[in-house]
UniProtKB/TrEMBL annotation:
(2R)-3-phosphoglycerate binds at residues 34, 110, 147. GO terms for biological process: gluconeogenesis; glycolytic process. It is an enzyme of class 2 (transferase). It catalyses: (2R)-3-phosphoglycerate + ATP = (2R)-3-phospho-glyceroyl phosphate + ADP. Keywords: ATP-binding, Cytoplasm, Glycolysis, Kinase, Nucleotide-binding, Transferase. Pathway: Carbohydrate degradation; glycolysis; pyruvate from D-glyceraldehyde 3-phosphate: step 2/5. Belongs to the phosphoglycerate kinase family. Substrate binds at residues 19-21, 34, 57-60, 110, 147. ATP binds at residues 197, 293, 324, 350-353. Monomer. This is Phosphoglycerate kinase. It comes from Amnibacterium kyonggiense. It is found in: Cytoplasm.
Length: 398
């Protein structure tokens, strides 16, 4: 169900679930991408003379009020971007008085344990309290549609509901990755843990032409090939699964690119001594068995860039190295650059990868699409059922 299903909203108050879960440092927003992404829907509703009560989570405060996770700075940023006052209501979102101005922002939903409760009855009670804030509900937090939480799932059943413009836009792009993507199709995966990516690797192996592996998870791939990885991140228990992927990729004729060189450091620190070594000889660096791999090497980055440039559809999730430390950001930078050169569709999948490209100075419009959902876009590509979409009438293709 889309916004058009509502008819005339003039004079009504609409509850809008956004994903304003932005990165903060010392109370300041370091990437306001998710706030910006929520603007089209809010502007559309305000232009239709509706008023809005915006709800969101921020971080994982474990069901308790915690000033570190207050939405106050986000409400202020939202007001600046909308160029109108956004009234922030501190305190419990369930007990807050209904808003009176055009834009009201409630406090972090996850300060109430019922938001993420496993008990459907508790979630329903919280959704009913939130429903007091409006007469219609717009779900627009794409980044949380994979979560069965009160403000995502139950609230959509309590009030007349529809998907907002952000969700509609995300789906229109991501469906191009799942429904007959233009070939060659490459998927680049990074980030720290292979265990977070098992579902997506499993699902994508038969569908892609190449799969490129970087980030902390690459060391489990190297270990699966029989190489020593020093003190690099390693998920020992995943080695058999990864060996199975290597075998299946071979059988399916999928090009599975595992790094051939890596940047190894003496310690996990921005100014640590470091060297580039062949991926099958990590412990030959001057740091011996104490070396920690923190980035893909230049040969690997060049090979990845070539594979990306040769593709017509590319999806990327997860940094290639510890991009927050400039000495270990080159691999991520090279991959980001290659994505900007794709003739076809390039998609950056949410969370850390979106923050990475912006931190490294790439403008959003250099990519085909930057998804606001990290986990959500991965689960979408896995073909999983997403509760926050199904409740709005959307059905995954078999
Ligand atoms: C995200 O950052 O991926 C979304 O905001 C969801 O957050 P969560 O993983 O804490 O549910």
């Amino acid at each position: 169900r889309t916004l058009d299903s509502f008819g005339d909203l003039a004079g009504t108050r609409v509850v809008v679930r956004c994903d304003l879960n932005v990165p903060l440092k010392d109370g300041a927003i370091t990437d306001d991408g998710r706030v910006r992404a929520s603007l089209p829907t809010l502007t559309r509703l305000l232009d239709a003379s509706a008023s809005v009560t915006v709800i969101s989570h921020l971080g994982r405060p474990d069901g308790e009020p915690n000033p570190k996770y207050s939405l106050a700075p986000v409400a202020q940023r939202l007001g600046e971007l909308l160029d109108r006052e956004a009234t922030f209501v501190p305190g419990s979102p369930a007990d807050a008085a209904p808003g009176t101005g055009a834009v009201t922002v409630l406090e972090n939903l996850r300060f109430d344990p019922r938001e993420t409760s496993k008990d459907a009855g508790e979630r329903r009670a919280f959704a009913e309290a939130l429903a007091q804030h409006g007469s219609a509900f717009v779900s627009d937090g794409f980044g949380v549609v994979h979560r069965k939480q009160a403000s995502v799932f139950e609230l959509a059943q309590v009030l007349p509901s529809a998907a907002g413009l952000l969700i509609a836009n995300e789906l229109s792009v991501l469906e191009r990755l799942t429904e007959r993507p233009e070939k060659p199709y490459a998927v680049v995966l990074g980030g720290s843990k292979v265990s977070d990516k098992l579902g997506v690797i499993d699902h994508l192996l038969p569908r892609v032409d190449s799969l490129l592996i970087g980030g902390g998870m690459l060391f489990t791939f190297l270990a699966a090939q029989g190489h020593a990885v020093g003190k690099s991140l390693l998920e020992q228990d995943q080695i058999p699964t990864v060996q199975e992927y290597l075998r299946r990729a071979d059988e399916l004729g999928v090009t599975l690119l595992v790094p051939t060189d890596v940047v190894v450091a003496a310690a996990f620190a921005p100014d640590a001594d470091h060297e580039t070594v062949p991926a099958d000889a990590i412990e030959s660096s001057s740091f011996g068995a104490d070396g920690i791999g923190l980035d893909i090497g230049p040969d690997t980055a060049a090979a990845f860039a070539t594979a990306i440039a040769a593709s017509r559809t590319v999806f990327w999730n997860g940094p290639m190295g510890v991009f927050e430390f400039p000495a270990f950001a080159d691999g991520t930078k090279r991959v980001a650059q290659a994505l900007t050169e794709v003739e076809g569709l390039s998609v950056v999948g949410g969370g850390d990868s979106a923050a990475a490209v912006r931190t490294l100075g790439f403008a959003d419009d250099r990519f085909g699409h930057i998804s606001t959902g990290g986990g959500a876009s991965l689960e979408f590509l896995e073909g999983k059922r997403l509760p926050g979409l199904e409740v709005l009438g959307w059905e995954a293709d078999a």
